[in-house]
Amino acid sequence: MKSEKKILLTAFDPFGDDKINSALETLKNLPDEVDGARIIKLQLSTVFGKSSLVVKEAIQKEEPDAVLLLGMAGGRTMITPERVAINVDDARIEDNEGNRPIEQTIVPDGPAAYFSTLPIQGMVEAMLERGIPASISNTAGTFVCNHLMYFVLHYLAQNQQNLPAGFIHLPYLPVQVLDRANIASMGLETMVEGIGICLDVLVKNVEG
Fold first, then answer.
1. N or C: which end of the chain has fewer CB within 10 A?
2. pLDDT tens across 72-124, in order?
3. Residue among 25, 82, 193, 198 flagged as catalytic
4. Does residue 57 have an active-site annotation?
5. Looking at the whole model, is its pTM more than 0.90?
6. What does CATH list as the number for 6-205?
């Protein structure tokens, strides 16, 4: 019988023209324990398919109580838990191994979409109460972030694992917009605090 709660927390490496990924920097600066729950941190390659298999293997090995996936959405002004992942890859740019799927189905014959099973409303409310800009997003895009969210939710559904799981997007860091006029960013300390709050809400939401 498990006694220790475990949260699997993932983030991608830098991709595209960016040398930094704000989500990865946030992950690195988060504690290894939140409210008595162990935070299992996992860095992923921004590669279609490969990142999904790494997370699946981690779920099988670690048997976490919840899965929280982090990613970067440059241009957003808030921390944005995603409501839904759709069954399509349609990449604007290549991933880190040169893949660029266009209008491809992630899981043949899979559902059109999956809704996040994270307590996203509670997460947003808790962040706003602490003065951290946050809102629910209704699109995770069609790049690797959406692919991973869809894959994980599909895998859990197919294996009847009733774990809270989902995705949160983070803005750019200030250093990433020094030469990008009129593009929003958020300080690392604020993002670390925000995701820490989300983890706190998630741990309290997990059945122990």
1. N
2. 999 999 999 999 999 999 999 999 999 999 999 999 999 999 999 999 999 99
3. 82
4. no
5. yes
6. 3.40.630.20
